[in-house]
Amino acid sequence: MPSERPISVRTISAAEHRDHLATLPSASFLQTPGWAKVKSEWRSESLGWFAEDGTQVGVALVLYRKLPKLDRSLAYLPEGPVIDWSSDDLGTWLDPMVRHLKKQGAFAVRIGPPVVTRRWTTAQVKEGIADPAVRLLSQLPPAERSPAGARTVAQLDELGWRHQGVEGGFAAGQPQFVFQIPLRSADGTQRTEDDVLKGMNQLWRRNIKKAAKEGVEVTRGDREDLKAFHELYVHTAERDHFTPRPLRYFETMYDALTADAAAPGERFTLWLAHHDGDLVAATIAIRVGEHAWYSYGASSTEKREVRGSNAVQWAMIRDAIAAGAAVYDLRGITETLDADDPHVGLIQFKVGTGGEAVEYAGEWDLPVNRALYKAFQLYLKRRG
């Protein structure tokens, strides 16, 4: 980003928002203008940061959640804003944003800096799960500590922002811990399919081969295929005991992110794995520039032996490599490494891909009206 100090923040159009994102290597899909249509129950606004010479240097999607009976809102920037987080003076970037949001009726602001703080290798995570003395990822010395991440956290604390801690399970907002497969080497060269496959554990490689031998066919779906995906997703929800989203949510997501994309298939791709005509697994992938995400998945209880879930994941990884993505993101994991915790199975599945556990800075709140913010926190505790 340009070195000029940003001095102003103002509302921008969805087109201006989209155009600025197109100049960047990547940004979270939660910070695209299309995501506002997915979260239609929130009021939304696109913000731009402008340097003294008028150059746009930052962007954000703000979602406003109104308090019951009051004309005041929580202003939420999921995995944003998209600004220069390497700055040694984050107040220059965040203070004008807060002033703008306060004028918009925000009683508090919640942000999710897209800044990595720590990383752990697959080997470290596996050793932690095997060690009964280790219960949390944070008990393991990381393979890498990010100086930029540490600076961000220190500055936010100094500026009065409050970190929203994660207690054992997933955070109420976006996950602080995720699992990712780097698709570029340390020197920036693109890893090949063979490179990534060699990094996977023996079980994953065997399952990918078995799916191919069994004749599992993986194809891209279109909007009409969302119904079949959703039926399998509801089946998965019943089996794994979570509350499924309605079909309309995925239709809205497809429409909003497809319309938002610079190229077909960039933002939203539906993947389907069939065996002898039966849908055995289905997933939704999202990509913004160099970052590819595994977003939603579903699998059949029948025919699990044909390994449709591994086949569809491998198809998404190969597609991300072909698109020149720098990272394939399997999204959230909990911090637990306790072998008796039901969440650890999810980590073990993702660890098999040979990637790394990554901690982000997490979500941070700034109370604008302290009394309303305190009441809001009490309301959340009672509801929880």
TrEMBL record:
Keyword annotations from UniProtKB, A to Z: Acyltransferase, Cell shape, Cell wall biogenesis/degradation, Peptidoglycan synthesis, Transferase
Gene3D superfamilies in the record: 3.40.630.30
Keyword Transmembrane: no
Molecular-function annotations in GO: aminoacyltransferase activity
Iron-sulfur as UniProt keyword: no
GO terms under biological process: cell wall organization; peptidoglycan biosynthetic process; regulation of cell shape
Superkingdom of source: Bacteria
Family designation: Belongs to the FemABX family.
Record protein name field: Aminoacyltransferase
Organism of provenance: Nocardioides albidus
